[in-house]
Write a structure and sequence with these properties.
The complex is a heterodimer. Chain A has 26 helices and 21 strands. Chain A is an alpha+beta fold. Among the domains of chain A are: 195 residues, no CATH class; 219 residues, no CATH class; 149 residues, no CATH class. In chain A, α8 packs antiparallel against α15 and α15 runs antiparallel to α24. The two termini of chain A are 35 Å apart. About 2% of the residues of chain A have low confidence. Chain B is α/β, with parallel strands linked by helices. Chain B has a single domain, classed as Rossmann fold (3-Layer(aba) Sandwich), CATH 3.40.50.300. Helix content of chain B is 34%, strand content 30%. Chain B is built from seven helices and ten strands. In chain B, the strands form two sheets. A six-stranded mixed beta sheet of chain B has the order 6-7-8-3-9-10, sandwiched between helices. Chain B has a four-stranded antiparallel beta sheet with strand order 2-1-4-5, covered by helices on one side. The chains are: A alpha+beta, B alpha/beta. At the A-B interface, α1, α8 and α9 of A face α1, α2 and α3 of B.
């Protein structure tokens, strides 16, 4: 038998003898692995689905999109491709008010006017099935089922869009295109494009998106067309999309979502690592004498270490495998949880690579965490077999501890990087964890010092006895505070981030805030709108002028040139700022949702009478939102020339503003100085508030009848839709966080079990000396209240700091500390610590002293 | 076989130096049977620990089968123990998670040997052939100590160290254990070093070394 044979045989015997002793280790690993396998296997399914369904999602090989009717360059490309055999279809998208006369229902909808055989791939499933092929046969519309519900309408009803009337011929079960956020702004309505004109909805200032879809003949490659034409089209503000672009963009977005969920899973696994470490500490303590005997019988320290490392690995492997099985089961739940957020139908199937990765990660994390306490096995003196009370001197410095610590740090970085797919983010994550552990360690160390130095001798004996346990030899203060504190810190951070995200999304601030936005009001319609509002007894905000415009040049460089440069690099994320259509306003003062961060606001006295600017510059000033300024790379003093309905208006950046977009007010990327835009063609926006949903409906309907081109956006409906989405995300996060909660509790149980045997013996001695059960209870209580409180307070502080950092740098939103939930969590941690501590000590109180003293 | 010279062991305890053993010198011939006796706290167990290489002396040397223990590092001493030394402890110190047979096998397995046949033979020798698959907790004290004896002799050690081997047993069982030890000592030619405070037990040894306050107070041969 080789020495390796001995190691494995001994390890197997150890497992056989006490599989339950290492149950904590196995479970700790299993929970984390389950979380990882569930999310990673799901991610693999998602990638697979995106790959398979990307073509049907786009509905074509290639699409061209523009905010204007497609320019000549795009039409020429379409003609050329059509001449080579490409099939084409057109879709014009815009928002409008839909109105059902029979039920008096009105609702803002997303209209898609279809021409040609859209979609060119995949299909639109409708109820009844014939509705889609029949769409073009007459004045038919096919609508999202939610519209019928909202308007209490049914198939066969008449539906008015602008000045045209249609018959609802069916509902959509599935169609290409985005779901999620866009659907929040209204259900979809598909109409035949030849009736578009009749609606008279695409007048001045209406926002529409013009799309052309192409199905290419086999000898034409979408990628080649994209490579050759993208830059040129970009300069004409046409966006070209291919299936490959979509696939890449979607995979990236979804990977980010699942990557963060995966990080939550990794936290569960790392917490599990702490559970493993405390399980091993307890286990080794029980095995001290056996280890000493093995050493007497001639086993080297390394050999003994190998025996227990193999045992730990075996148990960890069992836990990982069990966890993977559970993870695959849980994976089935994820598509349901995330369905509303996903543009593809996800078929779940176990991903072997995800399972292998999960089991591998579980095994590795367990081993690295187990090695920490296992290292001490090498130093168990054989003499301990002769004398039970043998005390070793101070632990000599062990370089291996540093090696294991380094391996632990490197593993955390590596695993986090694998999970989020970025070394930088993985490192930041690991550094954050490290910093938190350091703070917790420092806190527990101070607690030990404080208990030793400053325990007032005047305090009741029982409290002093309990608190002294914090600093006595072989106390577990550091271990317990680290374990509980770290778990509470991770949970606290999750809760705080979640609450902050939700708060940011609470759109309607107070009861007095407007909840109905009326836009696309033509200047000559303003008086009609205001009369309607007055007649309905409603107050309304001053109307805000909106002038559509585009950027002609920035700092002397024509936008066409900038776009064809960026376009060559691909879809170009930064190019949106140059390409987009701006809807700007002019006013003399800032509004509540804005904050000046650079430059100066224009003086009020210049209003309306400006011919020469404040600083002798005759170009009007503009104030640019900070994010946009970054994209455009402009600052105060830089020149931006605007194209307003074909007229060039040179402007000078006067200031930069931060805008709180979450506040539903008319917010603008660019605000012009008064006196610069008054002459330009514009539309108006006004806001009002109607509390009763029914009154809101009535008002919208009246307005839709009188002024069909004026669209009204019901913010409560948008808010409800957004909250539903956020709830979905939160549910998914909670689902993953539940795994952390489970391991967190395991860790707590494990950490407190580390000093259980010592406590039982001490308790027996105290009772021999005359302590009552009630007195013992109070001693134990004092100790655990102190441990729990220290861990909770430090963890709460750490969570607040971490959540602040995440809000500041990752989610780029405001942070509010949420003292009540944080205090609740802290209190919960103290209570949990005390309860588990007392349960853990019940043997101290229950068993008779003789039983314990004999049992040694 | 076993030779120690000028052995001294001091511990630092509560900031003071505590000398547990002071200038101990003696030797035991191959196949000999020496008993180390003395009152509680006289340094018996410490001396045993030093002789068996479980601990290092502050000064002085121990030679075991011609090898100076001080020259070996901990791992080398572990290997030497595995090869040449057997132990019997007062509290038996069987590994609770292993069966009787497995406990006997461990030292041989540590050396990479197949231990099955030898374990069966030794268990039969100590009269426990039918208890081979029992765990220590299922055996009486006397039976446990017999397993420990089988384990100690499994590697055919040159020296067997026994620390109060009958301390936890009743008189009759204890006598049986000693008989067995003496028998094995005779059959295998193993050198026996016995630590005890039981003078009746010590009387069975051919040589008695009496310790008092860390020094040899008397050294007599029967």
């Amino acid at each position: 038998m080789t020495s390796l044979g001995f190691v494995f045989r001994m390890a197997a015997r150890e497992v056989r003898a006490s599989p339950r002793r290492l149950l904590l280790l196995t479970t700790s690993v299993a929970v984390g692995v389950a979380a990882l396998v569930a999310i990673n296997s799901f991610t693999a399914n998602l990638r697979d689905s995106v790959r398979r369904q990307a073509r049907a999602l786009l509905g074509a090989d290639l699409s061209l999109e523009s905010r204007q009717p497609l320019p000549a360059s795009a039409e020429r490309l379409i003609d050329t491709l059509a001449a080579r055999g490409a099939e084409t279809a057109r879709v014009t998208n815009f928002s409008a008010m839909a109105f059902v006369p029979r039920t008096d229902g009105t609702r803002l909808v997303q209209v898609a006017a279809i021409r040609g055989g859209y979609p060119l791939y995949g299909g639109v499933r409708t109820e009844p099935a014939a509705a889609w092929p029949e769409l073009q046969r007459g004045r038919h519309v096919v609508v999202d089922p939610s519209l019928l519900t909202a308007l209490r309408a049914r198939v066969g009803d008449t539906l008015a869009l602008g000045e045209a009337r249609f018959v609802v011929s069916g509902t959509v079960a599935s169609a290409p295109g985005n779901v999620g956020l866009r659907a929040a702004f209204g259900p979809r309505v598909f109409i035949p494009a030849r009736f578009l004109e009749e609606t008279r909805l695409l007048g001045f200032g209406a926002r529409a998106e013009y799309e052309a879809y192409l199905r290419l003949p086999p000898d034409v490659s979408a990628q080649t067309v994209a490579e050759q034409r993208r830059a040129g089209l970009q300069a004409d503000r046409v966006r070209l999309r291919t299936v490959a672009d979509d696939r890449e963009r979607l995979s990236e977005t979804l990977s980010r979502l699942t990557g963060y969920l995966g990080l939550v899973a990794l936290i569960a696994l790392l917490l599990g690592g702490i559970g493993v470490a405390s399980a091993v500490v307890v286990f080794i303590r029980q095995r001290m004498e056996s280890i000493a005997v093995l050493r007497c019988l001639g086993a080297t320290g390394t050999r003994v270490l190998a025996v227990y490392a193999v045992e730990a690995a075996g148990m960890a492997l069992a836990g990982s495998l069990a966890g993977a099985a559970v993870g695959v089961a849980f994976q089935q739940a994820l598509p349901g949880l995330l369905a509303d957020l996903l543009p593809v139908d996800v078929e779940t199937s176990a991903s072997w690579s995800a399972i292998a990765l999960g089991v591998g990660m579980g095994l590795w994390v367990a081993l690295v965490f187990a090695l920490f306490p296992l290292l001490s096995v090498r130093r168990v003196p054989p003499l301990a077999a002769l004398r039970r009370d043998f005390e070793t001197g101070p632990e000599p410095r062990d370089v291996w501890r540093w090696v294991v610590a380094a391996a632990l740090g490197a593993s955390t970085v590596a695993l986090a990087s694998i999970q989020v797919g970025s070394l930088r983010q993985g490192s930041i994550f690991a550094a954050g964890m490290g910093a938190a552990l350091l703070v917790l360690w420092a806190a527990s160390w101070s607690l030990v010092r404080a208990a030793r130095r400053w325990l007032p001798p005047g305090w009741p004996y029982l409290w002093r006895q309990g608190l002294s346990n914090l600093h006595r030899p072989s106390n577990q203060t550091v271990t317990v505070v680290l374990a509980i504190g770290f778990g509470a810190f991770l949970l606290g951070t999750l809760v705080l981030v979640q609450l902050n995200l939700l708060q940011q999304l609470r759109l309607t601030g107070g009861p007095a805030r407007p909840n109905l936005v009326l836009f696309d009001i033509q200047p000559d319609q303003l008086s009609v709108v205001q009369r309607e509002l007055r007649d309905a007894g409603l107050s309304y905000s001053a109307s805000v002028p909106i002038v559509p415009m585009r950027i002609a040049s920035v700092k002397g460089r024509a936008v066409g040139g900038i776009l064809s440069d960026t376009g060559a690099a691909g879809a170009g994320s930064g190019s949106w700022a140059f390409r987009r259509e701006y809807r700007s306003t002019y006013r003399d003062s800032m509004v509540a949702s804005e904050r000046l961060v650079a430059g100066a606001w224009w003086n009020e006295h210049a209003r309306g009478a400006r011919s020469v600017g404040d600083n002798g510059d005759d170009r009007p000033g503009i104030s640019v939102e900070t994010g946009l300024a970054q994209e455009l790379e402009v600052g105060p003093g830089d020149e931006v020339v605007w194209d307003v309905q074909g007229i060039r208006i040179p402007t000078r950046v006067a200031s930069l503003r931060e805008v709180d977009w979450a506040r539903f007010e008319p917010n603008f990327f660019v605000v012009f100085e008064p006196g610069s835009l008054e002459g330009a063609p514009h539309t108006l926006v006004t806001l009002t508030r109607i509390d009763q949903p029914s009154a809101r409906g009535t008002f919208q309907r009246r307005l839709a009848e009188r002024l069909p081109n004026v669209t009204t956006l019901d913010l409560s409906v948008v808010q409800e839709a957004l909250e539903r989405l956020v709830d979905r995300v939160v549910l998914a996060i909670r689902f993953m966080a539940a795994f952390s909660l489970a391991t967190g509790t395991l860790v707590l149980v494990g950490a407190l079990a580390t000093n259980r045997f010592q406590r039982i013996r001490e308790g027996a001695l105290l009772r021999t000396l005359g302590a009552t059960r009630a007195q013992l209870f109070r001693i134990v209580l004092a100790e655990y209240v102190a441990l729990g409180a220290m861990a909770a307070v430090v963890a709460a502080g750490l969570s607040a700091a971490a959540a602040w950092a995440l809000a500041r740098w990752v989610f780029e939103g405001r942070f509010s500390p949420q003292p009540v939930p944080l205090a609740t969590l802290a209190l919960g941690v103290v209570i949990l610590t005390v309860v588990v501590g007392l349960l853990n000590s019940r043997e101290v109180i229950r068993r008779t002293p003789l039983e314990v003293l004999r049992g040694e | 076989m076993l030779r120690c010279a000028s052995l001294t062991k001091t511990y630092a305890s509560g900031g003071r130096e505590l000398t547990v053993l002071n200038d101990i010198t003696f030797s035991v011939e191959p196949g000999g049977f020496a008993a180390i006796v003395g009152p509680s706290g006289s340094g018996k167990t410490t001396l045993l620990g030093l002789l068996a290489g479980l601990d290092r002396p502050t000064t002085g040397t121990v030679h075991l089968d011609g090898q100076e223990l001080g020259a070996l590092d901990e791992d080398a001493r572990a290997r030497l123990r595995g090869a040449k030394i057997g132990f019997v402890f007062q509290s038996f110190q069987l590994i609770p998670t292993l069966t009787a047979r497995e406990n006997v096998q461990v030292p041989l397995e540590l050396r990479g040997e197949n231990a099955n046949g030898r374990a069966t033979e030794l268990l039969a020798r100590v009269g426990l052939a039918d208890r081979a698959h029992h765990y220590p907790a299922q055996l009486s004290g006397g039976e446990q100590q017999r397993v420990a004896l089988a384990r100690a002799f499994s590697t055919r050690p040159k020296v067997l160290f026994a620390d109060e081997p009958t301390g936890n047993l009743d008189a009759a069982t204890g006598a049986g254990i000693i008989d067995l030890m003496v028998e094995l000592n005779r059959d295998l030619g193993t050198t026996l070093v016995l630590v005890t405070h039981d003078l009746d037990l010590a009387a069975r040894a051919r040589r008695t070394i009496r310790l008092a306050d860390g020094r040899i107070a008397a050294d007599s041969t029967a």
